[in-house]
Amino acid sequence: MAALPEEPAEVVAVKPDPEAGTSPQPPAAPPAAAAAPAAPPTAAAEGEAAGSIGEAAPPKPAAPGPAASPAAQDRQTLLAVLQFLRRSNLRESEEILRREARLLSDDLGAAALSPAGAGLLGALGGDGDTAGGEALLSRVTAAAAIAIGGSAATVASSSPGVAAATAVPPGKVGGGVVVEDQPDVSAVLSAYNQQGDPTLYEEYYSGLKHFIECSLDCHRAELSQLFYPLFVHMYLELVYNQHESEAKSFFERFHGDQECYYQDDLRVLSSLTKKEHMKGNETMLDFRTSKFVLRISRDSYQLLKRHLQEKQNNQIWNIVQEHLYIDIFDGMPRSKQQIDAMVGSLAGEAKREANKAKVFFGLLKEPEFDVPLDDEDEEGENEEGKPKKKKPKKDSVGSKSKKQDPNAPPQNRIPLPELKDSDKLDKVMNMKEAARRVRLGPECLPSICFYTFLNAYQGLTAVDITDDSSMIVGGFADSTVRVWSVTPKKLRSVKTAADLSLIDKESDDVLERIMDEKTASELKILYGHSGPVYGTSFSPDRNYLLSCSEDGTVRLWSLQTFTCLVGYKGHNYPVWDTQFSPYGYYFVSGGHDRVARLWATDHYQPLRIFAGHLADVTCTRFHPNSNYIATGSADRTVRLWDVLNGNCVRIFTGHKGPIHSLAFSPNGRFLATGATDGRVLLWDIGHGLMVGELKGHTDTIYALRFSRDGEILASGSMDNTVRLWDAVKAFEDLETDDFTTATGHINLPENSQDLLLGTYMTKSTPVVHLHFTRRNLLLAAGAYSSQ
Predict the structure, then answer these.
(1) I need a surface site. Which of 190, 370, 610, 701 has the fewest CB within 10 A?
(2) Which parts of the sequence belong to the TFIID subunit TAF5 NTD2 domain (predicted)?
(3) Is there a contact between 324 and 294 (Cβ–Cβ < 8 Å)?
(4) Burial of residue 244, with CB atoms counted within 10 A of its CB: 0-12 exposed, 13-18 middle, 19 or more buried
């Protein structure tokens, strides 16, 4: 079969809607992307990336006419910005910029702007529109910053009338602007953006705090979102500019005002007291270089903008422009409860554009199989007095999928492995089991069978159970992988080559004859890793097993010979999780290097690299149709990636701690996520919305699983409990109208206890894995803890 192309995911920069936010630039790519081994970008890709930064387009042929020299263009750009600052009564900023550029006041008064410079001034907002001016100022800064990258690179802005910023070699004089130490205008602008009296930072912040606390209730909740990102950026700016005493005083005065779910981040922040500390802290570097996203109504934003302009509070306005992305929506402001449900991640909320891409969440059409009737089925029919049916019986769930799901991806959207005879036989068995499946619901809860690992002094770190519930595997901190049979049938290895040569290859029971009865045992131990094993996953056909470890490798084991077949090396740091695709062949891994990788079993290099998380990728899960992968991260976000092109098509925020468990509903429409905050959040994948919040657990949720028909959601936690939730009730009557989708005005049920169907406690065993058998018996697993 044809495999996906062996190349990392193409990184596509999305231009934000100018009406949607105050910042015209997409967030800078996190260092994680750079850390991933990727092929060199093509010229086309480089052009696209360069053209999307700051909305600047690649150079175009100049129109006929006299061409302005680079120095003259620099001067025109600078003069236009200075005149804009003067018209906006930003005298202090104008003085600082002129002083840095060593430009006399008379030069500004007497200077005549060229048509390009006049166009720039008009675009900056010559009529006093400071919002447009700040936005374009940031755009000019970005375009000028690109020019620094090459000695003679020229980047033309896509906005009409904006002159191109061109790099000028140091020491050159251009049109009255002396450029001795500053390489070009961008250096001046960046210096201007970073100016600020360190002794006034506390006054600026307390002034804004007083204004927000005294504003109307409807605006206060939305504007309060500014406190945390402003606090962090102002503190980092003080530390970066080596104002250590002012930074310490600022932190001690205001850190207690931040929301409780930011306490872990503030603990890290408090340890950064010198500029040198920031260089080694990747999380805070990400926070400084990527934009913190806030979703605010237009009325609240206008209120904030008016206040900052009246108070001439340039320092805070600069931080808002440089480091925040304010996603503005029209309509009523959100309530405190609605905001609290969505915030808490390392980079704020997701932009609305991030969740607008179409997602094919439907299931693929299943191949048709004839399921012969068993003897007991025939006897049962005779007892009821009905004649025997010669027509093969079809599984009810299987028959539903015979009709093409309108939300399903095209059958050949990604290459999938062809079904072998053994796979077809297994699907027939699955359908037979499904025919006898218990229909679960509030009145019919599942029985639970708990597998407790006793004396697990090796430290149980991962568990998985085969789809047919015949084997269970444990990954341990002593670097071993242990496989048990949980049926009377023992685990056997294939005979040696010498013994195999004596077997008749044409016999009907050749598969049984090649197994060595001498090796039969209930337990097999696999050695190979050189560090704790953090993730395990059985292949759908039960012939293979994946394991990932602190040693940075993913290993593929044969369950016929119980030996290691391949070691996949791509991650440079510990790999936290791995999982097989529902169709086999493909698998995904995620680790400490903050990226997830898509692999195929017959390729030693990853097919896709999914970069975008700002912290460790802690858990991974394939969508039931295998076209998408969900990843949970320590940056407190969940992302959904398209396997076909590597794009991130959904970003879900709302958890207040690292995410450790993911589960798709059987119909592929919903996703459940669990984290260290003890909450289970439910998401509508099609609309990109949170639709439920399940509260009850008091510790990290390590296991989530839907029943085979999707009626029950089971959650397992470190609080030693398994809880069962009514999934049907949780997903009915969803508010997914256009307004809710556009603004994020989600209304979660007040009391999630109405959805709780049962709580089952263990004596002293944290729950690390859950699994529903084909007949809907719930299996749970964990290691007994004597503490």
Answers:
(1) 370
(2) 196-324
(3) yes
(4) middle
